[in-house]
## 1
Amino acid sequence: MELRFAMRLPEAWRLLRISWKPGRMAGIGLLAISVCLLSVGYIVFSAYLTRDFTLPSLAKLLCVIMLIYQGLLWDVILPAQVSNSLAQEFAVGTWQFQQTTPQPVRRLLLGKLLGAGGDVYLAAGIGLPFLALGVIAGPYPLLNVLGVCLTIIALSALVSSVTLYFAAMAGGRKQGGAVTTVVVLVVLLWMLVGLADYAKTRPGSFAALHPLFIMLAMINPKWASFAFVKFFGFAFPIVPFAVVFYAACAWWIFTATEAQLRRSMTIPMSRTPLFAAFIALEFCLIGFSHAAAGKPWYAAWIPIYISLNLLPLYYVLLNHSLNLSELRPWLYRLRGRKISWPELFRGDAPGVFTVAVLLAIFALGAAAFNLRLHGQDILNWATRSPQLYRLNSAPLIVILLFLPSVVIVLRDALFFQAGQLLFKRGREIAFAAYLILFGALPGLLMVRRFENPVLDLSPLTALLSSVVIRDWKDYQGLYINYLAVNLALLVLLAAINYRLLRKAQQNLPPELVK
Amino acid sequence: MGESVRTEQAIRTRRLRKEYDKVVALSALDLEVPAGEICGLIGPNGAGKSTLLKILATVIRPDFGNAQVAGFDVNNDPLPVRRRVGFMPDFFALYENVTAEDFLAYFALAYGVAQEKIKPRVTELLQMVNLRDKRTELISGLSRGMRQRLVFAKTLVHDPQVLLLDEPLSGLDPRARMDMREALRGLQNSGKTIIVSSHILAELSDFCRYVVILEKGVLRASGAVDEILARLHGALQVRVEIIGAREKAVEVISRTPGVSIQPGDGAIINFSLAAERAKLAEINAALVSGGVGVVSLEEKRGDIEDIYHQISGHEVQ
């Protein structure tokens, strides 16, 4: 039995062999029982303070504390252990042994996910009788508590996948210290609370943040309104929604980790652009929900166009910019050395090339699609609503929207390309710089202004724009400025890339440049 | 397990290149190692030996060129390569909190060794590396030499066709070195191809019939030791120990066509002979009939150390 399990997941077998040793189990068990008993002590003490010794009140508090206990175990300690088991391999150097085995990366990662939590399973198991006591004697329905438990476990899968991904990305590099971790956690918490609040008015996947409040709903009735999640106009019960959504996200990030590790294990992997598919679906759904809400057709089509034409390219950008492999084959090729095309594309083509090719394909597709769909309108070029400034003219809006989008994608491609050439060992730096600049660079920020989503101002555009936005008319001037600023940035980044590329070429070994 | 090597060449590289930042670790390396050989991989520090072994073990990817191990391309078919290769790195870390037995069992599982074979295989390997009495001890309690032997056992756990051993003898005591050499000979007799990198050339000479010399990432020589020696010297190297007058002996030996006497004095005469080996018997007879007492007359078999000195001019350990 044990061997059969081990044959399927050797890594889980190894990790559980380490954690499930009698002495260690006794220590963890003792600690877990102590924590549970201390919780009971706290409950009695708080009852003494409030003079409320009724069984339902005591059991209610016990139930909440035990759920928090389970939440900490599954959503904080387990992800930390999972991440640590991978980070340790890099840090200590055992990873090179893993690299030489033929076991599939997916199985190795699954083994870490399931095997690194040996201590957690034991501690969680010890807490279960206390939780059961709280449920039996308390006021909460069993189904609600089971729902919370399921959400905790689904969230654990998601958080564990995320931490595993970060460990895979960091490789053997030193992680941040305790202070950095605390700062990051505080910022993350702040962002989550803010986003969850924002999600109330947002039709997209932000709504999935609502389930984060499910535990709070148990404690504070104020959060009870979150029992249902509104997702693209549909109301879903929060628990099934959370479980499915978290599990799907966990799987998505898990595949990203797999791809990252396969690269580090020198196993070629072509990865389906799940990220792009996800975002594209998101924007399409937003578009459809606009359409369903009876908004003007362009309000529905803008996000759909954006998703279909541009977001796959963003995927390619991020994929390439974060890739740790080298660009040497391309540099040799640029110097005239004969390198086969399969060899060039097997590893890392410079992101900007791939983006340009994909952009051209999408542009052709979009042009063909628009011609077929709006040919009539192109011929009859008509303005139906002067106050909307011709934006409701179907072909024009597509072209107008597509043009800055092309500029933006190329601009960002060049930005990442520069990062790829500059930061050979830390592309994440370029990515972080991009995220910081994202608010400053004129970009695609879809927000609700007036009644319809439009291209909004970013700080840099606003700074450079002489246009004061008072009503829809002013967007004409803004559009021109917006395009001009992005074109200027595009040219600047192209020049920087050219310089970097020339420098990189000059550093090539002369014997290979023949 | 134990699948046969697909080609006669166990290792084949073409224009293999690897750079680390601006350092060229391997430069356009063309190499072939026949199946079933023990091949010594030698060169000074920074020659590219470890890089070559890591590429062959699919731990790192080459920048250019390709390499085949047991007929499989390391770039395109890394997993089949891993099933056929056992790699022992020069520096390694181990899972400190597992037992020696579990360590081997884990890698047997990871390599997909059949369930029923794992236990006997682990026992056999622990026996082979003299760690059977340490099987239930945590790795953290093992000495450096024991760890080295344990990793050697791990390298063999899936019965690979090709062994890539980076400095396997370092850190071992004399007895363990002898055992390791014996083990390597035994593995070669069972048909495995073994690439051993080492600085200790005298030890490689004991069991390597094939040699690859690298220097600054460039292949300086490769081939069977005898062939390289013949190429280098172009003649038999002969050593004669005599009793009596050296001048007389030199005069007798010089009569044979193709003989070139090397400078020296005393009772030992070294000369090269550009003729077939049968001439040695004639020289011996001539010396005896000429009244020179011959203590010994032998062909000097050059070794890896000779080759390395002649080719690279470097001093090594």
## 2
Amino acid sequence: MFEEFLERYAYFLTMALLVIGLYGALAKRNLLKKVIGLGIFQTAIFLFFIEGAAKRGASVPVIDPQTGAVAAEYVNPLPHVLILTGIVVATATTGVAMALLLTIYRRYHTLDEKRILEEAKR
Amino acid sequence: MTDRYPSVIVDLVSRAVVPAIQLFAIYVVFHGHYSPGGGFQGGVLLAASIVLLRLAQGTEESSRSFPTSLGLALAALGVLVFILTGLVSMFLGGAFLDYSHLPSPGASGPVLRYFGILAVEVGVALAVWGTLVAIFDRLVERTDDV
Amino acid sequence: MKALAIVVLGAFLAVLLYAEGDLPPRGDPEAPANVHVSPYYIERSLDETKTPNVVTSVLADYRGYDTLGETVVVFAAGLAATLVLIREGRRQ
């Protein structure tokens, strides 16, 4: 039972981060806290992908020319490639989210979701 | 615009450290073939060096070294380098982004693909550098109401 | 509002825990993600591109088209942030 937990602890950590991020995005009233919650959710997804790429006893996917290219000795490189792209795009889109938040603040002078919705209805 | 940080230590240390960060960033971009690294990592390091310059010396003074309008221009240049690498190989007979058809003074095959990867990584580093500095400069701009 | 969020997240967590039973154990070299295409890239990267770093050669050569799309997306995000924040009139 404990052995199984040791084999799968990564998935439980990922689930905890997913739930924390979604709670921040849904239940907080401040818009900046919602953006931070979505950022935590993104980080949990990246962690899940990279955990799926690990192999027991393997090393970094930089091929040593002396030992040849045996596939079982190197970590699966494909999720690393996808997540590299994903992290840079996530950073750029967080920048766009900050720009939108700045525009909202300049217009309504608050970042509280309830007060913004009340102001927008008037 | 950011103000100058009111401390002599921060000023002197940032003047010493920013060229070192940029040199290490260029090393990370070019050594991406042999160690973890490549275009994205080097581009983010370069952007971090410019943000340090802005925070330590203020936008007014550091915009003499790196103007605020240069960010988007660098990003566009990076995308252009990438697309030109693909188009050159398409016009010389291969498919789009097929590096083995790049023009070469005598090399062929794997060596051409090596240099194709290098050109593409430089383009990506420029694009990431320019975009992150442009977003930072636009977010800290001060206008009349905020 | 917070109570509704907690109920929804509890259901989400229950679905995740149920789905976790089907995932392969961590580090299994025979997991479906590790046997399909990636041995091809690992075995051929050094011979075909002279690049020991498999991640860089996959990112820039074998899957270079995706990297082109991603670079255009990053540039578009920079453009979008600039266009949202440009203001006419006086500025300091």
## 3
Amino acid sequence: MTLAEAFVHLLTPNGFGIMLVGVALGISVGVLPGITAGMLMALTLPFTFHMSSVDAVSLLTAMFVGGVSGGLITATLMRIPGEPNAIMTCLDGYQLARRGYPGRALGLGNSSSLVGGILSWAALVLLAPPLASIAVSFGPFENFAVIVMALILISSLSEGSFLKGLSAGLLGMLVSYPGIDESSGIMRLTFGITAFEGGFNNLPVILGMFAISQVVADALNIEGQASAIRATMRGVFVSVRDYIVHGWNMLRSSLIGIWIGILPGVGATVASIVAYTTAKNLSRKPEEFGTGSEEAIVAAESANNATTGGTLIPILTLGIPGGLTDSILLGALVIHNLQPGPLLFKNNPEIVNTIFATHLVAHVAMFVLMTFGIAVFARLMQVPRAFILPIVIVFSVLGAYGLNNRPFDIWVMLVFGLLGVLLELARVPLAPFVVGLVLAPVAESELRAGLMASAGSFMPLIERPVACSMLVIATILFVWPFVRVWRRLAPASRNQTP
Amino acid sequence: MQPSGATRVAEFSYVLLILAVAGIIWHAASALPPAPYDPLGPKTFPLWVSYGLIALGLVMLARLLFRRSLGQAAQSMVIGLEDAEGNYERRPWVAVLTLTLAFAYAAGLSFRSIGFLPATAVYLFLSGIILGPIERRRVVVVAIFAVVAAVILDIVFRAIFKLDLN
């Protein structure tokens, strides 16, 4: 399936319907209290087994796009980020809405999201194929080195605590090991428990970590359902003049979003913060930021939607997720027996082209739905959590059970839900855990395959330039947090010397 | 920023958990046999990872004992677990009960004699009750919701998704 054929498929009733449902659900979870895009994608995964891979990928990509966008509504009308990436929109979107312009705030945010999405699509389509054609020449040693680098990168770059991030990644790797060792056929780490012989499936683990722990968090905050400003259509339609006035800001913030999206582990939240801060620093009216500034809304919303294309580039070309929701998308591809990475372009071009086409069409659909359906989506904010949360648990249970029809997976999901709560309470980032879980088997099989070919020699890891460069980058990233701490402490100890 | 008391307790629990898990994996992996023609065999990766985890766990434990910060995740995908987002009272017992009910629901489904439909209806009813004020009118609404939702879920998952729910 070529890119043109993928677009044509999206125009068929089936293709269009699936994409539209994905976008609508994605927007809805941004609005619905207690559900996040990551949770929606995890919950949907088991039901995509009944679809073709093309439709499943289209649905999840559309949810991914819709999920990034939907947080705008609660951020503007309730000052609550429906998704974490809408945190900066809360500051000015809500203030503009409170001054009597909710439609204007939503319209500007929505239009900026569209521009950010389209520009990031262009980056995705232009950058991903050449990068994949380079990556396809990688052998097992290079692939292993890329995964090591990704794990350290995602632990060190973004999450605030290298120790916690890396330990979460290693913990995720350990979870992937019980069961039959595929290379040797030897049963390992089952502790004599029959149910462990099948290993832990990724799906119940991911469902537990995201769906169950979010339900617990929502139950904890059950009293916190806030009142919302009423949404109106007045000002929702943005004029051509607005695009001209805010054009440079949209372009700059989108480029920031694309670039940050490409970096593993950083994600849409950081992109919107960086774009917001940049817009404020370059603004002629920085004092208006935080009081309902249009520039602020444009910057934050362009940037967070622009990450969607950027973040798909490392997933598709190297099999490395950019952030947490993306790591669920990565898990989804693996669960559908698709190996993300350069070979996806060669073996499953229909999947790559479906992702490309859906990414663009979903942004347009998101824009239309959010423009004309704003009143409907706004009403979802008032659905009581007492009805939503138990249903989420039932869906999670059915999703985990439906995978193999074994009750063990339900218990796995619940236990990992508890672990997710503990990790969140300890402020341990979850993204490295999922990356470790999903990529550990690949890293192991690649290195073992490489070593079998090299008669047990590790030298190719040093002799092959790409593998060596990746490992050097990984080493620098590993050492850098310690150097930073040492440099911070050294002047202090010098000052204390008499 | 200094972490709260709850975060410190969670951090201690997390560090002890990873040390325990890594220790158990290290012990179990050490006993695995080598594989023919495979330089690494099935035990090397679990051992490497458990060494790394033990090292990180000890560093984190030392920092905690010396009251040094471990840092914290800059972003969270589980919203509202660590900080209240508004001016309202948090309900820890509701969270605990919600989780307990989920475990009870899983146990109920594991005893296949109970059946999906009654187990789900009872679960939805009890969860709906604890997640809001107990008022007569609300109890009736939640009961109707529980029964209707359970029936719809039963039909959808049996008929469309062909799940074996017995």
